């Protein structure tokens, strides 16, 4: 397995989707905390849930969009590593303290990717070709109504 196959276009699309969804979920969680809909002690759980959900959705999109480039689990875990690196770069540039809940965030991030990778590629129900269905319809004679 080469890095060229692993880092395909579907992985980057999944990473972009994951980042956008993470920003959206974190904004929703912060609004809920600010309005008083959630207690303050629920903040780490909401952030961990946002990480897991965003990585899961992004990895599923990357796995389903990848046309046999690499296996589903390596592709999902690569997305998780790339998102984890981006989160660390953002954390190092600000006043973020990962010592309190860093392990929980890491577990949520890689847990979502692991779940998406283990689900794998699901092949959809094969649709009959339009051309074949028309030919079959012509081959069967219709009954005449009286």
Question: How would you characterize this protein structure?
Answer:
The chain has 146 residues and is mainly alpha-helical. It is 71% helix and 0% strand. The chain has 6 helices and no strands. The chain has helices spanning 3-6, 9-35, 43-65, 72-93, 102-119, 130-139. The protein is elongated, with a radius of gyration of 22 Å.
Radius of gyration: 22 Å
Mean pLDDT: 80
Oligomer: single chain
- Principal-axes geometry comes out as elongated
Low-confidence stretches: none
The counted number of beta strands is 0
Largest sheet: none
**Class from helix and strand fractions:** mainly alpha
Question: Proportion of β residues?
Answer: under 5%
Measured between the Cα atoms of the first and last residue, the distance is: 66 Å
The succession of helices and strands, N to C, reads: HHHHHH
Number of helices: 6
What features would you highlight for this structure?
146 residues; 71% helix; mainly alpha
TL;DR?
It contains six helices and no strands. The chain is mainly alpha-helical and 146 residues long.
SSE inventory with pairings:
Elements: H1 3-6, H2 9-35, H3 43-65, H4 72-93, H5 102-119, H6 130-139
Helix pairs in contact: 2-3, 2-4, 3-4, 3-5, 4-5
């Amino acid at each position: 397995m080469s890095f060229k196959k692993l880092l395909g276009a579907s992985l980057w699309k999944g990473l972009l989707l994951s980042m956008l969804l993470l920003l959206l979920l974190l904004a929703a969680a912060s609004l809920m905390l600010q309005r008083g809909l959630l207690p303050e002690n629920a903040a780490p759980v909401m952030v961990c849930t946002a990480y897991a959900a965003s990585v899961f959705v992004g990895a599923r999109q990357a796995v389903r969009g990848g046309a046999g480039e690499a296996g589903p689990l390596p592709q999902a875990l690569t997305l998780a590593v790339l998102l984890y690196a981006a989160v660390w770069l953002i954390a190092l540039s600000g006043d973020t303290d990962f010592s309190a809940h860093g392990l929980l965030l890491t577990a949520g991030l890689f847990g979502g990717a692991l779940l998406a990778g283990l689900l794998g590629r699901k092949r959809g129900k094969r649709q009959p070709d339009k051309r074949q269905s028309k030919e079959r319809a012509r081959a069967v004679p219709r009954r005449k109504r009286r």
